[in-house]
Design a protein that fits this description.
It is a single chain. With about 525 residues, the protein is α/β, with parallel strands linked by helices. The protein folds into three domains: about 55-125 and about 200-445, Rossmann fold, CATH 3.40.50; about 140-185, no CATH class; about 450-525, Arc Repressor Mutant, subunit A, CATH 1.10.10.580. It is built from 20 helices and 13 strands. The protein has helices at about 55-65, 70-85, 115-125, 125-140, 140-170, 175-185, 205-215, 225-230, 240-250, 280-295, 320-325, 330-350, 365-380, 390-395, 400-410, 425-445, 450-470, 475-485, 485-490, 490-505; strands at about 90, 100, 105-110, 200, 215-220, 255, 265-270, 270-280, 305, 360, 475, 505-510, 515-520. It has a five-stranded parallel β-sheet with strand order 4-5-8-3-9, with helices on both faces. Strands 2-1-10 form a three-stranded mixed β-sheet. The two termini are about 45 Å apart.
Protein backbone atom coordinates (compact mmCIF):
# COMPACT_ATOMS: atom_id res chain seq x y z
CA UNK A 1 0.00 0.00 0.00
CA UNK A 2 1.30 3.46 -0.89
CA UNK A 3 1.47 5.73 2.16
CA UNK A 4 0.41 9.35 1.61
CA UNK A 5 3.32 10.58 3.72
CA UNK A 6 6.75 8.97 4.01
CA UNK A 7 6.74 7.16 7.31
CA UNK A 8 9.71 5.48 8.94
CA UNK A 9 8.67 5.52 12.57
CA UNK A 10 5.47 3.50 12.59
CA UNK A 11 3.22 6.50 13.28
CA UNK A 12 -0.03 6.96 11.35
CA UNK A 13 0.42 8.67 7.99
CA UNK A 14 -1.25 11.91 9.03
CA UNK A 15 0.54 12.57 12.29
CA UNK A 16 4.00 12.77 10.77
CA UNK A 17 3.02 16.12 9.20
CA UNK A 18 3.20 17.67 12.63
CA UNK A 19 6.88 16.83 12.80
CA UNK A 20 8.03 19.29 10.15
CA UNK A 21 8.33 22.22 12.58
CA UNK A 22 11.24 24.59 12.05
CA UNK A 23 14.04 24.69 14.56
CA UNK A 24 14.42 27.77 16.76
CA UNK A 25 16.83 30.52 15.77
CA UNK A 26 20.19 30.56 17.52
CA UNK A 27 21.14 32.66 20.51
CA UNK A 28 22.00 36.26 19.62
CA UNK A 29 24.05 38.75 21.69
CA UNK A 30 23.60 36.88 24.94
CA UNK A 31 19.87 36.47 24.64
CA UNK A 32 18.34 33.08 25.32
CA UNK A 33 16.63 31.19 22.53
CA UNK A 34 13.11 32.61 22.05
CA UNK A 35 10.58 30.02 23.10
CA UNK A 36 7.13 29.36 21.72
CA UNK A 37 4.20 30.76 23.65
CA UNK A 38 2.30 27.57 22.86
CA UNK A 39 3.00 24.00 23.81
CA UNK A 40 2.58 22.68 20.25
CA UNK A 41 4.85 25.28 18.71
CA UNK A 42 3.85 28.52 17.04
CA UNK A 43 6.09 28.10 14.02
CA UNK A 44 4.56 26.98 10.75
CA UNK A 45 5.62 23.64 9.34
CA UNK A 46 7.69 23.92 6.19
CA UNK A 47 5.35 24.02 3.21
CA UNK A 48 5.63 20.81 1.10
CA UNK A 49 6.36 22.73 -2.10
CA UNK A 50 8.08 19.76 -3.69
CA UNK A 51 4.92 17.64 -3.69
CA UNK A 52 2.97 20.00 -5.97
CA UNK A 53 2.91 18.02 -9.22
CA UNK A 54 3.50 18.81 -12.85
CA UNK A 55 2.56 22.11 -14.45
CA UNK A 56 0.93 23.31 -11.21
CA UNK A 57 4.00 22.77 -9.07
CA UNK A 58 6.34 24.28 -11.64
CA UNK A 59 4.21 27.43 -11.90
CA UNK A 60 4.03 27.87 -8.12
CA UNK A 61 7.77 27.41 -7.71
CA UNK A 62 8.36 29.96 -10.47
CA UNK A 63 6.15 32.54 -8.74
CA UNK A 64 7.95 31.94 -5.42
CA UNK A 65 11.23 32.53 -7.24
CA UNK A 66 9.98 35.77 -8.81
CA UNK A 67 8.00 37.23 -5.89
CA UNK A 68 9.97 35.77 -2.96
CA UNK A 69 6.79 35.36 -0.95
CA UNK A 70 6.08 32.48 1.46
CA UNK A 71 5.49 29.37 -0.72
CA UNK A 72 2.14 28.67 0.97
CA UNK A 73 0.77 32.04 -0.18
CA UNK A 74 1.72 31.43 -3.83
CA UNK A 75 0.36 27.88 -3.67
CA UNK A 76 -2.95 29.05 -2.21
CA UNK A 77 -3.24 31.62 -5.00
CA UNK A 78 -2.71 28.90 -7.59
CA UNK A 79 -5.07 26.42 -5.91
CA UNK A 80 -7.87 28.98 -5.71
CA UNK A 81 -7.62 29.58 -9.47
CA UNK A 82 -7.47 25.82 -10.16
CA UNK A 83 -10.64 25.39 -8.12
CA UNK A 84 -12.57 28.19 -9.84
CA UNK A 85 -11.75 26.70 -13.24
CA UNK A 86 -11.86 22.99 -12.37
CA UNK A 87 -15.08 23.07 -10.33
CA UNK A 88 -17.01 23.46 -13.59
CA UNK A 89 -15.47 20.36 -15.15
CA UNK A 90 -16.16 17.40 -12.87
CA UNK A 91 -16.93 16.10 -9.40
CA UNK A 92 -14.93 13.53 -7.42
CA UNK A 93 -16.13 10.46 -5.51
CA UNK A 94 -13.55 8.66 -3.35
CA UNK A 95 -16.21 6.75 -1.39
CA UNK A 96 -18.93 5.14 -3.48
CA UNK A 97 -21.33 5.20 -0.51
CA UNK A 98 -21.18 9.00 -0.23
CA UNK A 99 -22.41 11.38 -2.91
CA UNK A 100 -19.79 12.95 -5.21
CA UNK A 101 -18.08 16.15 -4.06
CA UNK A 102 -17.41 19.28 -6.11
CA UNK A 103 -13.83 20.25 -6.88
CA UNK A 104 -14.46 23.58 -5.11
CA UNK A 105 -11.98 24.73 -2.45
CA UNK A 106 -12.08 27.33 0.30
CA UNK A 107 -8.56 28.66 0.97
CA UNK A 108 -7.48 31.16 3.61
CA UNK A 109 -4.01 32.72 3.83
CA UNK A 110 -3.14 34.56 7.03
CA UNK A 111 -0.33 37.10 7.07
CA UNK A 112 0.55 40.69 7.80
CA UNK A 113 0.49 43.28 5.04
CA UNK A 114 3.62 43.37 2.92
CA UNK A 115 3.91 39.59 2.42
CA UNK A 116 3.34 40.07 -1.35
CA UNK A 117 0.20 37.94 -1.42
CA UNK A 118 -1.46 40.35 -3.85
CA UNK A 119 1.57 40.20 -6.15
CA UNK A 120 1.44 36.40 -6.15
CA UNK A 121 -2.32 36.52 -6.80
CA UNK A 122 -1.78 38.68 -9.87
CA UNK A 123 0.24 35.93 -11.55
CA UNK A 124 -2.70 33.53 -11.26
CA UNK A 125 -6.11 35.16 -10.84
CA UNK A 126 -5.55 37.74 -13.56
CA UNK A 127 -5.91 34.97 -16.14
CA UNK A 128 -9.51 34.35 -15.05
CA UNK A 129 -10.51 37.97 -15.69
CA UNK A 130 -8.65 38.05 -18.99
CA UNK A 131 -10.26 34.84 -20.24
CA UNK A 132 -13.75 35.98 -19.13
CA UNK A 133 -13.29 39.32 -20.89
CA UNK A 134 -12.15 37.63 -24.09
CA UNK A 135 -15.08 35.22 -23.96
CA UNK A 136 -17.54 38.08 -23.44
CA UNK A 137 -16.14 39.83 -26.50
CA UNK A 138 -16.30 36.61 -28.48
CA UNK A 139 -20.00 36.09 -27.75
CA UNK A 140 -20.95 39.78 -27.88
CA UNK A 141 -23.11 39.34 -31.04
CA UNK A 142 -25.08 36.60 -29.25
CA UNK A 143 -25.42 38.81 -26.16
CA UNK A 144 -26.74 41.72 -28.24
CA UNK A 145 -29.23 39.47 -30.03
CA UNK A 146 -30.26 37.90 -26.74
CA UNK A 147 -30.94 41.28 -25.14
CA UNK A 148 -32.93 42.37 -28.22
CA UNK A 149 -34.99 39.14 -28.11
CA UNK A 150 -35.83 39.77 -24.45
CA UNK A 151 -36.88 43.37 -25.14
CA UNK A 152 -39.08 42.25 -28.06
CA UNK A 153 -40.59 39.42 -25.99
CA UNK A 154 -41.45 41.74 -23.09
CA UNK A 155 -43.02 44.21 -25.53
CA UNK A 156 -45.08 41.39 -27.05
CA UNK A 157 -46.28 40.29 -23.62
CA UNK A 158 -47.27 43.85 -22.70
CA UNK A 159 -49.09 44.25 -26.03
CA UNK A 160 -51.13 41.10 -25.45
CA UNK A 161 -51.96 42.21 -21.90
CA UNK A 162 -53.15 45.57 -23.26
CA UNK A 163 -55.35 43.76 -25.78
CA UNK A 164 -56.84 41.68 -22.96
CA UNK A 165 -57.58 44.81 -20.94
CA UNK A 166 -59.22 46.56 -23.91
CA UNK A 167 -61.32 43.51 -24.77
CA UNK A 168 -62.39 43.17 -21.14
CA UNK A 169 -63.53 46.80 -21.05
CA UNK A 170 -65.64 46.24 -24.19
CA UNK A 171 -67.02 42.96 -22.92
CA UNK A 172 -65.44 41.05 -25.82
CA UNK A 173 -64.29 37.43 -25.80
CA UNK A 174 -60.64 37.12 -24.64
CA UNK A 175 -60.11 33.46 -25.49
CA UNK A 176 -57.80 34.16 -28.43
CA UNK A 177 -55.80 36.72 -26.44
CA UNK A 178 -55.38 34.29 -23.56
CA UNK A 179 -54.09 31.64 -25.95
CA UNK A 180 -51.68 34.16 -27.45
CA UNK A 181 -50.47 35.08 -23.95
CA UNK A 182 -49.98 31.45 -22.93
CA UNK A 183 -48.02 30.76 -26.12
CA UNK A 184 -45.88 33.88 -25.64
CA UNK A 185 -45.11 32.99 -22.02
CA UNK A 186 -44.03 29.52 -23.14
CA UNK A 187 -41.67 30.95 -25.75
CA UNK A 188 -39.68 33.22 -23.45
CA UNK A 189 -36.18 33.64 -24.95
CA UNK A 190 -33.48 31.70 -23.18
CA UNK A 191 -30.91 33.97 -21.53
CA UNK A 192 -27.36 34.12 -22.90
CA UNK A 193 -24.86 33.60 -20.09
CA UNK A 194 -21.46 35.27 -20.17
CA UNK A 195 -18.69 34.18 -17.78
CA UNK A 196 -18.08 36.58 -14.89
CA UNK A 197 -16.06 34.42 -12.56
CA UNK A 198 -14.35 36.56 -9.93
CA UNK A 199 -16.02 38.39 -7.07
CA UNK A 200 -14.40 40.40 -4.27
CA UNK A 201 -16.52 42.67 -2.06
CA UNK A 202 -19.78 40.77 -1.72
CA UNK A 203 -22.17 38.97 0.61
CA UNK A 204 -23.04 35.26 0.49
CA UNK A 205 -26.58 36.07 -0.61
CA UNK A 206 -25.45 38.27 -3.49
CA UNK A 207 -22.94 35.59 -4.55
CA UNK A 208 -25.77 33.05 -4.63
CA UNK A 209 -27.80 35.47 -6.79
CA UNK A 210 -24.91 35.92 -9.24
CA UNK A 211 -24.37 32.16 -9.44
CA UNK A 212 -27.97 31.68 -10.54
CA UNK A 213 -28.42 34.71 -12.77
CA UNK A 214 -24.96 35.44 -14.20
CA UNK A 215 -22.52 32.51 -14.24
CA UNK A 216 -22.73 29.22 -12.28
CA UNK A 217 -19.03 29.02 -11.35
CA UNK A 218 -17.58 31.84 -9.27
CA UNK A 219 -14.56 32.47 -7.06
CA UNK A 220 -14.45 34.98 -4.23
CA UNK A 221 -10.81 35.99 -4.55
CA UNK A 222 -9.69 38.78 -2.26
CA UNK A 223 -6.42 39.87 -0.69
CA UNK A 224 -8.51 41.90 1.77
CA UNK A 225 -10.73 39.17 3.21
CA UNK A 226 -11.98 41.51 5.90
CA UNK A 227 -14.82 42.17 3.46
CA UNK A 228 -15.86 38.55 4.01
CA UNK A 229 -15.01 38.00 7.68
CA UNK A 230 -15.66 41.54 8.86
CA UNK A 231 -18.41 42.65 6.51
CA UNK A 232 -22.11 43.21 7.02
CA UNK A 233 -22.87 39.60 6.14
CA UNK A 234 -21.03 38.38 9.24
CA UNK A 235 -22.80 40.62 11.76
CA UNK A 236 -24.61 38.90 14.60
CA UNK A 237 -28.05 39.05 12.97
CA UNK A 238 -26.82 37.64 9.64
CA UNK A 239 -23.99 35.27 10.40
CA UNK A 240 -25.89 32.04 11.04
CA UNK A 241 -27.74 32.14 7.73
CA UNK A 242 -24.72 33.27 5.76
CA UNK A 243 -22.47 30.56 7.20
CA UNK A 244 -25.12 28.02 6.24
CA UNK A 245 -25.21 29.45 2.70
CA UNK A 246 -21.42 29.24 2.29
CA UNK A 247 -21.36 25.72 3.74
CA UNK A 248 -24.06 24.58 1.33
CA UNK A 249 -22.28 26.12 -1.65
CA UNK A 250 -19.04 24.32 -0.67
CA UNK A 251 -20.99 21.07 -0.76
CA UNK A 252 -22.52 21.89 -4.15
CA UNK A 253 -25.94 21.52 -2.54
CA UNK A 254 -29.25 23.22 -3.23
CA UNK A 255 -30.80 26.04 -1.24
CA UNK A 256 -33.69 28.45 -1.38
CA UNK A 257 -32.97 32.16 -0.92
CA UNK A 258 -35.84 34.34 0.27
CA UNK A 259 -35.47 38.01 -0.56
CA UNK A 260 -37.47 41.06 -1.44
CA UNK A 261 -36.80 43.69 -4.04
CA UNK A 262 -35.25 43.29 -7.46
CA UNK A 263 -34.90 39.68 -8.51
CA UNK A 264 -37.05 38.34 -5.70
CA UNK A 265 -36.64 34.89 -4.15
CA UNK A 266 -34.80 32.18 -6.07
CA UNK A 267 -33.55 28.60 -5.85
CA UNK A 268 -29.87 27.72 -6.08
CA UNK A 269 -28.79 24.44 -7.66
CA UNK A 270 -26.11 23.13 -10.02
CA UNK A 271 -23.66 25.93 -9.21
CA UNK A 272 -20.13 26.02 -7.77
CA UNK A 273 -18.27 28.41 -5.47
CA UNK A 274 -14.61 28.54 -4.43
CA UNK A 275 -12.83 31.08 -2.24
CA UNK A 276 -9.22 32.26 -2.12
CA UNK A 277 -8.89 34.78 0.69
CA UNK A 278 -6.03 36.54 2.46
CA UNK A 279 -6.43 38.25 5.80
CA UNK A 280 -4.36 39.84 8.54
CA UNK A 281 -3.99 37.84 11.79
CA UNK A 282 -5.67 40.46 13.97
CA UNK A 283 -8.83 40.51 11.84
CA UNK A 284 -9.26 36.75 11.65
CA UNK A 285 -8.52 36.35 15.36
CA UNK A 286 -11.16 38.94 16.20
CA UNK A 287 -13.65 37.15 13.96
CA UNK A 288 -13.11 33.78 15.62
CA UNK A 289 -13.00 35.19 19.14
CA UNK A 290 -16.47 36.65 18.52
CA UNK A 291 -17.94 34.05 16.18
CA UNK A 292 -15.77 30.99 16.79
CA UNK A 293 -18.48 28.85 18.33
CA UNK A 294 -20.81 29.39 15.36
CA UNK A 295 -18.07 29.13 12.73
CA UNK A 296 -16.59 25.94 14.12
CA UNK A 297 -19.85 24.42 15.29
CA UNK A 298 -21.35 24.81 11.81
CA UNK A 299 -18.30 23.27 10.13
CA UNK A 300 -17.44 26.51 8.33
CA UNK A 301 -13.88 26.59 9.69
CA UNK A 302 -13.27 22.95 8.79
CA UNK A 303 -13.97 23.58 5.12
CA UNK A 304 -11.00 25.93 4.76
CA UNK A 305 -7.48 25.02 3.76
CA UNK A 306 -5.72 27.44 6.07
CA UNK A 307 -2.15 28.73 5.76
CA UNK A 308 -0.39 30.87 8.38
CA UNK A 309 3.21 30.75 7.14
CA UNK A 310 6.31 32.37 8.55
CA UNK A 311 7.15 35.72 6.98
CA UNK A 312 9.86 36.09 4.35
CA UNK A 313 10.36 39.77 5.18
CA UNK A 314 14.02 40.63 5.60
CA UNK A 315 15.16 37.77 3.39
CA UNK A 316 13.85 38.90 -0.01
CA UNK A 317 17.22 40.02 -1.34
CA UNK A 318 17.31 40.90 -5.04
CA UNK A 319 20.28 40.62 -7.41
CA UNK A 320 21.23 42.97 -10.21
CA UNK A 321 20.38 40.23 -12.73
CA UNK A 322 16.88 39.83 -11.30
CA UNK A 323 15.97 43.52 -11.49
CA UNK A 324 17.53 44.02 -14.92
CA UNK A 325 15.75 41.40 -17.01
CA UNK A 326 12.32 39.93 -17.46
CA UNK A 327 11.73 36.45 -16.11
CA UNK A 328 10.95 34.06 -19.00
CA UNK A 329 7.95 32.59 -17.10
CA UNK A 330 8.21 29.28 -18.95
CA UNK A 331 6.31 27.33 -16.32
CA UNK A 332 3.68 30.05 -15.93
CA UNK A 333 3.03 30.14 -19.66
CA UNK A 334 2.42 26.39 -19.65
CA UNK A 335 0.10 26.86 -16.67
CA UNK A 336 -1.80 29.62 -18.49
CA UNK A 337 -2.23 27.45 -21.57
CA UNK A 338 -3.65 24.60 -19.49
CA UNK A 339 -5.88 26.97 -17.56
CA UNK A 340 -7.37 28.32 -20.81
CA UNK A 341 -8.05 24.74 -21.92
CA UNK A 342 -9.87 23.94 -18.68
CA UNK A 343 -11.84 27.20 -18.79
CA UNK A 344 -13.04 26.40 -22.30
CA UNK A 345 -14.28 23.05 -20.97
CA UNK A 346 -16.11 24.88 -18.21
CA UNK A 347 -17.71 27.22 -20.74
CA UNK A 348 -19.04 24.27 -22.71
CA UNK A 349 -20.56 22.85 -19.51
CA UNK A 350 -21.92 26.12 -18.10
CA UNK A 351 -23.11 28.19 -21.06
CA UNK A 352 -26.72 27.25 -20.36
CA UNK A 353 -26.48 28.70 -16.85
CA UNK A 354 -26.15 25.45 -14.88
CA UNK A 355 -23.50 22.83 -14.19
CA UNK A 356 -25.70 19.79 -14.59
CA UNK A 357 -24.63 16.15 -14.85
CA UNK A 358 -20.92 16.77 -14.46
CA UNK A 359 -18.76 13.65 -14.91
CA UNK A 360 -17.43 11.98 -11.79
CA UNK A 361 -13.70 11.45 -11.31
CA UNK A 362 -12.91 7.99 -9.94
CA UNK A 363 -9.87 6.80 -8.00
CA UNK A 364 -7.50 4.12 -9.19
CA UNK A 365 -6.85 1.19 -6.88
CA UNK A 366 -3.61 2.80 -5.65
CA UNK A 367 -5.34 6.14 -5.10
CA UNK A 368 -8.07 4.45 -3.06
CA UNK A 369 -5.42 2.86 -0.84
CA UNK A 370 -3.70 6.21 -0.27
CA UNK A 371 -6.95 8.07 0.38
CA UNK A 372 -8.25 5.39 2.74
CA UNK A 373 -5.04 5.39 4.77
CA UNK A 374 -5.25 9.17 5.07
CA UNK A 375 -8.92 9.01 6.09
CA UNK A 376 -8.16 6.39 8.75
CA UNK A 377 -5.08 8.26 9.96
CA UNK A 378 -7.20 11.35 10.59
CA UNK A 379 -9.73 9.21 12.43
CA UNK A 380 -7.06 7.64 14.65
CA UNK A 381 -5.79 11.09 15.65
CA UNK A 382 -9.26 11.89 17.06
CA UNK A 383 -8.70 9.41 19.91
CA UNK A 384 -7.88 10.66 23.39
CA UNK A 385 -4.29 11.85 23.34
CA UNK A 386 -4.26 12.07 19.52
CA UNK A 387 -3.12 15.14 17.64
CA UNK A 388 -6.69 16.03 16.67
CA UNK A 389 -8.48 14.99 19.85
CA UNK A 390 -9.50 18.59 20.53
CA UNK A 391 -9.94 19.52 16.88
CA UNK A 392 -12.38 16.95 15.55
CA UNK A 393 -14.28 19.60 13.59
CA UNK A 394 -11.13 20.56 11.68
CA UNK A 395 -10.26 16.94 10.90
CA UNK A 396 -13.77 16.10 9.71
CA UNK A 397 -13.34 17.55 6.20
CA UNK A 398 -9.66 16.90 5.56
CA UNK A 399 -10.08 13.67 3.58
CA UNK A 400 -12.77 15.29 1.45
CA UNK A 401 -10.47 18.24 0.74
CA UNK A 402 -7.68 15.82 -0.17
CA UNK A 403 -9.93 14.18 -2.77
CA UNK A 404 -10.84 17.58 -4.22
CA UNK A 405 -7.19 18.63 -4.46
CA UNK A 406 -6.36 15.32 -6.15
CA UNK A 407 -9.13 15.90 -8.68
CA UNK A 408 -7.76 19.34 -9.54
CA UNK A 409 -4.19 18.05 -9.81
CA UNK A 410 -5.47 15.29 -12.09
CA UNK A 411 -7.27 17.68 -14.46
CA UNK A 412 -4.44 20.22 -14.62
CA UNK A 413 -1.70 17.70 -15.22
CA UNK A 414 -3.04 15.97 -18.29
CA UNK A 415 -5.74 13.73 -16.83
CA UNK A 416 -9.04 13.30 -18.65
CA UNK A 417 -12.41 13.16 -16.86
CA UNK A 418 -12.65 9.52 -17.98
CA UNK A 419 -9.26 8.60 -16.50
CA UNK A 420 -8.85 7.49 -12.89
CA UNK A 421 -6.83 9.54 -10.41
CA UNK A 422 -3.42 7.96 -9.82
CA UNK A 423 -1.90 6.95 -6.51
CA UNK A 424 0.92 9.49 -6.91
CA UNK A 425 -1.57 12.31 -7.46
CA UNK A 426 -3.54 11.31 -4.37
CA UNK A 427 -0.34 11.01 -2.35
CA UNK A 428 0.55 14.62 -3.20
CA UNK A 429 -2.98 15.74 -2.35
CA UNK A 430 -3.03 14.03 1.06
CA UNK A 431 0.33 15.50 2.01
CA UNK A 432 -0.98 18.95 1.15
CA UNK A 433 -4.27 18.43 2.99
CA UNK A 434 -2.35 17.17 6.03
CA UNK A 435 -0.15 20.26 6.04
CA UNK A 436 -3.20 22.52 5.98
CA UNK A 437 -4.86 20.51 8.74
CA UNK A 438 -1.91 21.03 11.06
CA UNK A 439 -1.81 24.70 10.13
CA UNK A 440 -5.46 25.00 11.19
CA UNK A 441 -4.72 23.14 14.42
CA UNK A 442 -1.83 25.50 15.15
CA UNK A 443 -3.91 28.59 14.42
CA UNK A 444 -6.90 27.55 16.49
CA UNK A 445 -4.68 26.52 19.37
CA UNK A 446 -3.69 30.18 19.58
CA UNK A 447 -7.32 31.21 19.94
CA UNK A 448 -8.46 28.53 22.39
CA UNK A 449 -5.88 29.43 25.02
CA UNK A 450 -6.09 31.25 28.38
CA UNK A 451 -6.59 35.01 28.12
CA UNK A 452 -3.09 35.80 29.42
CA UNK A 453 -1.48 33.66 26.68
CA UNK A 454 -3.82 35.03 24.04
CA UNK A 455 -2.93 38.59 25.05
CA UNK A 456 0.77 37.73 25.02
CA UNK A 457 0.46 36.32 21.49
CA UNK A 458 -1.29 39.49 20.30
CA UNK A 459 1.28 41.74 21.97
CA UNK A 460 4.18 39.66 20.65
CA UNK A 461 2.94 39.91 17.05
CA UNK A 462 2.27 43.62 17.39
CA UNK A 463 5.68 44.43 18.92
CA UNK A 464 7.56 42.48 16.26
CA UNK A 465 5.64 44.22 13.48
CA UNK A 466 6.17 47.62 15.13
CA UNK A 467 9.92 47.10 15.50
CA UNK A 468 10.34 45.89 11.92
CA UNK A 469 8.28 48.79 10.58
CA UNK A 470 10.16 51.39 12.63
CA UNK A 471 13.60 49.78 12.27
CA UNK A 472 14.13 49.50 16.01
CA UNK A 473 14.64 46.76 18.55
CA UNK A 474 12.82 48.32 21.50
CA UNK A 475 9.74 50.27 22.50
CA UNK A 476 8.80 52.20 25.61
CA UNK A 477 6.04 51.03 27.91
CA UNK A 478 4.37 54.40 27.41
CA UNK A 479 4.19 53.81 23.65
CA UNK A 480 2.80 50.34 24.25
CA UNK A 481 0.02 51.82 26.36
CA UNK A 482 -0.72 54.34 23.61
CA UNK A 483 -0.39 52.22 20.48
CA UNK A 484 -0.69 48.51 21.25
CA UNK A 485 -3.96 46.61 20.65
CA UNK A 486 -6.72 47.75 22.97
CA UNK A 487 -7.02 44.39 24.71
CA UNK A 488 -3.47 44.56 26.05
CA UNK A 489 -3.11 48.28 26.85
CA UNK A 490 -4.66 47.91 30.29
CA UNK A 491 -1.97 47.97 32.99
CA UNK A 492 -2.75 44.56 34.48
CA UNK A 493 -3.19 42.86 31.09
CA UNK A 494 -0.03 44.51 29.80
CA UNK A 495 2.00 43.39 32.83
CA UNK A 496 0.81 39.80 32.48
CA UNK A 497 1.49 39.73 28.74
CA UNK A 498 5.00 41.16 29.21
CA UNK A 499 5.69 38.59 31.94
CA UNK A 500 4.72 35.79 29.53
CA UNK A 501 6.98 37.22 26.83
CA UNK A 502 9.88 37.69 29.23
CA UNK A 503 9.53 34.10 30.50
CA UNK A 504 9.72 32.92 26.90
CA UNK A 505 12.92 34.92 26.21
CA UNK A 506 11.08 37.05 23.69
CA UNK A 507 11.48 40.42 25.46
CA UNK A 508 13.40 41.99 28.31
CA UNK A 509 12.10 44.86 30.39
CA UNK A 510 14.60 47.42 31.69
CA UNK A 511 14.48 50.84 33.34
CA UNK A 512 16.15 53.87 31.78
CA UNK A 513 15.80 56.78 34.16
CA UNK A 514 12.08 57.08 34.76
CA UNK A 515 11.27 55.20 31.57
CA UNK A 516 10.41 51.53 31.21
CA UNK A 517 11.88 50.10 27.98
CA UNK A 518 10.97 46.79 26.36
CA UNK A 519 13.82 45.24 24.33
CA UNK A 520 13.03 42.61 21.70
CA UNK A 521 15.05 39.44 21.26
CA UNK A 522 17.05 40.08 18.04
CA UNK A 523 16.35 36.54 16.85
CA UNK A 524 12.70 37.52 16.42
CA UNK A 525 13.66 40.42 14.14
CA UNK A 526 16.03 38.46 11.96
CA UNK A 527 18.99 39.98 13.81
Amino acid sequence: MNAPIPNNNGKPALSIVGGFVRTEKPTVDGWGIPESLLDIGSESARYPLNVLPGVVGAAVREVVEIVKCPPALAANSALSVLAVAGQGIANVQPNIRIKPSPLSLYLLSIGESGERKTTADDFFSGVLDMWAHQKQQEIEPDLIKGRADVVAWKAEIEGIKDSIKQAARKGQDNRENRERLAFAEATQPKPIYAPNMVSEDTTPQSVAFDLVHEWPSVGILSSEAGVVFGGHGMKADNITGNLATLNKLWEGGTLSVKRRGEGGSFNVRDVRLSMGLAIQPSIIRDFYEINGEKARGSGFAARFLLAFPASTKGNRIETIEEISQQHPKKALNLFYAKLHEVLEQQYANAKNGKLENLPILKLSSDAKDVWLEYLNSAEIELRAGGDMADYSDLASKTANNAARIAGLFHLFNGGDVLDTISGNTMEAATMLAGWHLYEARRFFSEIAVPTDISNAIKLDAWIIDYCRTHYTDNISRRDLQRLAPNKVRNGINLDKALDELADANRVQVRTEGRKSIIDINPALLGG
